[in-house]
Amino acid sequence: MLQHVTAGVDGSTESLAAAHWAAREALRRGAALRLVHAWTWHSRPAASVPMGTSEREWAQQTLDRASGSVRAAHPGLRIVGQLVSGSAVDALLAAPGEAELLVLGSRGLGGVAGFLVGSVSQRVVARSVRPVVLVRAGEAAADEHLPASDGVSPEEIPGTPYRDVVLGLDTRHPCDELIEFAFEFAGCYGAALHVIQAFSVPSADGGDLHAATGAGPELLAAQERTVVSTLRPWCEKFPEISVTETVSEGRAATALVRASAGASLVVVGRRVRDGHLGTHIGPVTHAALHHVGCPVAVVPHA
Length: 302
What we know:
This protein is an alpha/beta fold. It contains eight helices and eleven strands. It has helices spanning 13-29, 55-73, 88-94, 119-127, 176-189, 217-237, 252-259, 283-291; strands at residues 4-8, 32-39, 79-85, 101-110, 114-116, 132-136, 165-168, 193-199, 243-249, 265-271, 296-301. Helix 3 (88-94) packs parallel to helix 4 (119-127). The radius of gyration is 20 Å and the shape is globular.
């Protein structure tokens, strides 16, 4: 059981959206919310720091504003504020502790541009051993739910169904941590789970044969059987969750972004590599972070 959900705050609108998303998740899980703000001393304070205010005082005010905003929206939630001196990346990577979920904001440009992932968020995602959820500015509770009829806000109608949770699955490297995370979130939301698997047919020269010929029905059927077989143990473990599989030929990133429209959460994986290989988030996850409009959960796995 989650003890804490942790969110990083820095005074930006996207980090405030992340804090509120984390608060809702903490309430759903019966957990407390930890808000973390990191600050660094400079010999010449930034222009954003008011005259007569020290950097530490300004950092505390930033944390207090975020805490106050979340507390006003969720008065029954236990909130713990943590002010850390030092690197934001190091503070956020160290912050989860007993928490199993870290929530950060991402700067969204909107439209075709999609996510503009901040350097802090991207470095945390690439190095975190815990799942990280990235939330865009403007994300609200109503966005998690299907639209209510007659223009009534979903927040005003208890029990309005959640939008689907979307899982990007790669059956070549199936990962229990990733699949379980998606099933657990769908179960917590009472939402359906939409599993996306895309594949391409390699040609003799290493290119994508599907671009010229397309895959035959036999290959498509084989891919579908593999997805069903991969998910079967999880469907048996979570029988209450409605699961839909979509298998298509083409680029995985394109299929995932297309399926994310109208989702409450997209779940993707990040393979943990040996230290000498550096840190990477992978092309599909990178595309999701840049082009998916709803919150994106990145789950590290072997």
